[in-house]
Design brief:
7-stranded mixed β-sheet, 33% helix, 6-stranded parallel β-sheet, alpha/beta, 418 residues
Length: 418
């Protein structure tokens, strides 16, 4: 048997009610699951990274980021399944597949987009080097926590507040009571006079593997708290969280290890799909059968800036459509459309223009773009792309197709001031 491993497990099932396809949502141009894999792989103490999933798109993205994928059984992939069940299954599947004993296992949540490799090494070191049985990331917390009282507690509070005797019914309009959870509401101590509260970030946990198998939950024995930067604590549970993460990414990713997007030094040409990339993939048809699509003015500005910067540009579409040709004329960009094999057309165009394919950025949204992805150095998917396309992409825009994705790519290449 091979030496004992420190295994990072990232549970990432396909179903999500708050944010559809949440684990594939892009933050800073990178899908959430790929961000988590990247940081785990960069951690000093992690031997290998496993993504446990039931979703083919997540599996493809995880493999592309360098993770081992374990297919999660349907019995532990539903809304009621726990993360512990997924980690136990993944750990046992990994040991069986590779003949490697796992000494310590980490549970890493990809819904924490700003988790760093230092955080992951922190919890791993607490168990592997520090002798703790379990560990978790926490952040300093100074807030006063309140809880609304319900049921019997609310009824008793309402009686006192309204002077209703014990034998009488409480009026339905009686005000709800509230109590302080981490403080006495009658006494408001200064921050410096209060004990330091620590908030569980939900990002990273580490457990001794044998103890985890026995306890079957993540906190057992001596638990170590590993402090992390409170400014980086964010869990993506709903669309508002995702919007905040995308807004913060340009700031917080600046210091994140491995945050890589293409720059002007990496790219000589930008090749753009049309439907679903420069549009939202919808088509309006009038009574005469004429098609109308909507494009984004910001994309036009971004393309113009790329043209001024001297990059070779091309619109490549499998559809033969007057709309595509008209958009090309408007943007002053050559168009190749009505092609059966986009990869062959792209390869020929590169040869004719003396452009090395590994210096080409190709942006697309659907499965017919995948052959071109395999040809170029910078395959890029828009945020609304098919799961398999996002999974095969080297970078993913935060903006969906038709909503400024090309402008976003232009800002990668030419700088955020664009």
């Amino acid at each position: 048997m091979a030496p004992a491993a420190v295994l990072a497990v990232i549970p990432a099932r396909g179903g999500s009610k708050g944010v559809p396809a949440k684990n594939l949502a892009a933050v800073g141009g990178v899908p959430l699951v790929a961000r988590a894999v990247r940081e785990c792989r960069a951690a000093r103490l992690v031997s290998d990274v496993v993504v446990s999933t039931d979703d083919p798109g997540i599996a493809a993205t995880a493999r592309g980021a360098g993770a081992v994928v374990v297919q999660r059984p349907g019995a532990i992939a539903g809304d009621t399944a726990t993360s512990e069940e997924a980690v136990l299954h993944a750990m046992e599947a990994y040991e069986a597949r590779y003949g490697t004993r796992v000494a310590a296992v980490l549970l890493v949540q990809c819904t924490s987009p700003f988790l760093s490799s230092e955080d992951i090494d922190g919890v791993a070191a607490a168990v592997v080097e520090g002798g703790a049985d379990s560990a978790l990331t926490v952040a300093p917390f100074h807030g006063f926590v309140w809880r609304e009282e319900t049921g019997a507690a609310h009824e008793e509070h309402a009686r006192v507040a309204t002077g209703v005797p014990a034998w009488a019914a409480v009026p339905p309009t009686a005000p709800a009571g509230a109590r302080g959870v981490n403080h006495d509401k009658a006494h408001r101590p200064r921050r410096q006079d209060r004990p330091q509260d620590l908030l569980e970030t939900g990002a990273a946990y580490a457990m001794r593997a044998d103890g985890f198998r026995t306890a079957r939950h993540r906190f057992f024995g001596r638990t170590e708290l590993v402090r992390t930067d409170a400014a980086r604590v964010l869990e993506v549970d709903d669309p508002h969280d995702l919007a905040r993460a995308r807004a913060l990414a340009p700031i917080l990713d600046g210091s994140a290890a491995g945050a890589v997007l293409p720059t002007r030094e990496d790219v000589d040409a930008v090749v753009m799909d049309f439907d679903g990339t420069q549009t939202d993939d919808r088509v309006l048809i009038d009574a005469d059968g004429r098609e109308i699509v909507a494009v984004h003015r910001g994309d036009g500005l971004g393309v113009a800036a790329l043209r001024r910067a001297g990059l070779d540009l091309l619109i490549l579409s499998s559809e033969t459509d007057a709309v595509v040709a008209a958009r090309g004329r408007k943007l002053q960009v050559p168009v190749l459309h009505g092609v059966d094999r986009k990869d062959r057309a792209l390869k020929q165009w590169c040869e004719e223009h003396g452009v090395a394919p590994d210096r080409v950025l190709y942006v697309g949204n659907d499965v017919n773009d995948l052959p071109c992805f395999g040809l170029v150095g910078w395959p890029v998917a828009v945020a609304s792309a098919h799961d398999a396309v996002r999974g095969a992409a080297r970078a993913v825009t935060s903006a969906p197709g038709g909503s400024g994705a090309l402008r976003e790519i232009a800002s990668w290449l030419l700088g955020p001031s664009l």
